[in-house]
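Sample entry was shown:
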Amino acid sequence: MHDLLAEAIQAHGGLDRWNHFDTLRATIVSGGELYVLKGMPQDPTPREQVISLHRQSASVQPFGAPDQKTRFTPEHVAIEKLDGTVVAERSNPRASFAGHELTTAWDPLQRAYFNGYALWTYLTVPFSLTTPGTRIESIAPWQEGAETWRGLRATFPTGFASHSQVQEFYFGDDGLLRRHDYHLDVAGGDPATQYVYDIVDVAGIRVATRRHAFMRAADNSPLREREMVFVNISNLRFS
């Protein structure tokens, strides 16, 4: 394992502790410009997010109606009633984004797919960087004020559902995640950067509870006037 990745994983609680659990539940509140551009402005209603830690699977409720939830895997996305009745579903959901630009409207299943992979990614890093087939390499550090954050580039395997196949992650001197860079492939491929804050210890695992994503300039600096997504996370429970 790459030395910095090993350090980061240990700083976030260690693989042994992570592997002790199967599921993470959390309350999320999210919003930002991206949802407005996609024709789906996000209301401030708290939602229950559930993810599987060791495979890409997630669900959020309510979604679209008080008695509805989503069900996400890379190969399939669905909107269901709480009793399991399928409202809408789509296989190979990634293909539905072909030709999309930043302002192309999403349908509810595309929104559900985005929510599924994005929250799964955010809640599993850096542990998910050990996914078989992922290539990890060192990159130049990022200078943020007086701090120097060490960087890793992850190239995920084909079929891994996330913002883009290649992503960058930056860690502080304490080994904790500070910044996450990617391209938003499901919305035209524009570069974005996400800053993480308020890391808490939950059952021995350290998790960021605030995330703010911005459009990214050519010099990799955040365009802070373009906050595309924010996510506030609370009530985290591992099981």
Residues 3-238 form a domain with the outer membrane lipoprotein receptor (LolB), chain A fold (CATH 2.50.20.10). Helices lie at 3-11, 15-19, 33-37, 108-124. The chain has a mean pLDDT of 97.
